[in-house]
């Protein structure tokens, strides 16, 4: 029976790796076995199931309709095995294994990666699998262990999270641009300026400004230029293309260096939450906890959410 289970798992593993890599050659390299062994494992799996999972050509592998359905079932099986291993590791309190983490593109590269480097240096048995996206990924469906989000952390029905900090943004521009166009003192003056908008999901995000009595107004600008990458937006402002609403962590070096100048329009001291999230269905494994703790230490936490 154990040999049969072992054979089944070999076939499932070979099949999943072949789908993810697009070829038996790449799947074999990932698994550390020969190409022929990988192909034979998948062939035996298809024979046992009595269905064709992959359409093979000389250049590619393509999932059949049955193969697509079986692929998702296999991912769930492997996820359950990973959860079992995670539970055992949690009981041992050992920081080990692979942590799949998804980060916002600019914030992740500039602010989170230095923290992850320190965590990796201090935990030699921990492997990091890091992806970057400014969209909201589905942790459960995409097999992500931990995600860091800026702004609304989303629906917490299947997630637990910790607010690890708060982002503040300011309105700024290159001094040369402000010398040419003037320094706006109110939002009404934006109509006389070239405004640079950050786009998320194809839509420009509003700018938050403080009104009388400390009230916060979300101002929808009419941008001249729309840019969907934070560092590219900062670069556009530095190069004099117009006013930009930039997070302080992104603009800090250029403000200190005189390449950007903040305009005299007040913005909220705490604008956007920064949150770490992980699937509710899993215990907080040591590999997740060590990263969450490091982020809390780095970004000054506030309170637990989603629990």
From TrEMBL:
Coiled coil: none annotated. InterPro entries: LysR-type_TF_proteobact-type, LysR_HTH_N, LysR_subst-bd, WH-like_DNA-bd_sf, WH_DNA-bd_sf. Pfam families: HTH_1 (PF00126), LysR_substrate (PF03466). Keywords: DNA-binding, Transcription, Transcription regulation. It comes from the Bacteria. Residues 9-64 form the HTH lysR-type domain. Belongs to the LysR transcriptional regulatory family. This is LysR family transcriptional regulator. It comes from Ciceribacter sichuanensis. The lineage of its organism: Bacteria, Pseudomonadati, Pseudomonadota, Alphaproteobacteria, Hyphomicrobiales.
């Amino acid at each position: 029976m154990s040999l049969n289970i072992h054979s089944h798992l070999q076939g499932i593993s070979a099949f999943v790796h072949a789908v993810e890599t697009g070829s038996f050659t790449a799947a074999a390299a990932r698994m550390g076995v020969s190409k022929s062994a990988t192909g034979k494992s998948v062939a035996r799996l298809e024979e046992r199931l009595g269905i064709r999972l992959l359409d093979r050509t000389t250049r590619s592998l393509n999932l059949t309709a049955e193969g697509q359905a079986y692929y998702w079932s296999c991912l769930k099986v492997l996820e359950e095995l990973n959860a079992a291993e995670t539970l055992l590791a949690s009981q041992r309190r050992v920081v080990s294994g692979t942590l799949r983490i998804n980060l916002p593109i600019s914030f992740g590269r500039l602010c989170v990666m230095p923290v992850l480097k320190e965590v990796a240096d201090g935990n030699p048995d921990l492997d990091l699998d890091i992806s970057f996206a400014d969209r909201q990924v589905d942790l459960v469906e995409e097999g992500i262990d931990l995600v860091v989000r800026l702004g609304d952390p989303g629906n917490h029905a299947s997630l637990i999270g910790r607010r690890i900090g708060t982002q503040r943004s300011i309105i700024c521009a290159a001094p040369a641009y402000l010398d040419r166009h003037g320094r706006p003192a109110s939002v009404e003056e934006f109509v006389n300026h070239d405004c640079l908008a950050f786009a998320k999901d194809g839509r420009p995000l509003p700018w938050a400004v403080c009104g009388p009595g400390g009230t916060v107004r979300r101002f929808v600008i009419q941008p001249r230029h729309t840019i969907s990458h934070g560092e590219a937006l900062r670069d556009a402002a530095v190069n004099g293309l117009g006013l930009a609403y930039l997070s302080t962590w992104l603009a800090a070096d250029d403000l200190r260096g005189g390449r950007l100048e903040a305009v005299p329009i007040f913005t909220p001291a705490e604008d956007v939450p920064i949150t770490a999230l992980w699937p509710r269905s899993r215990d907080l494994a040591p590999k997740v906890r060590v990263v969450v703790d490091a982020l809390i230490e780095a970004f000054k936490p506030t309170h637990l959410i989603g629990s």
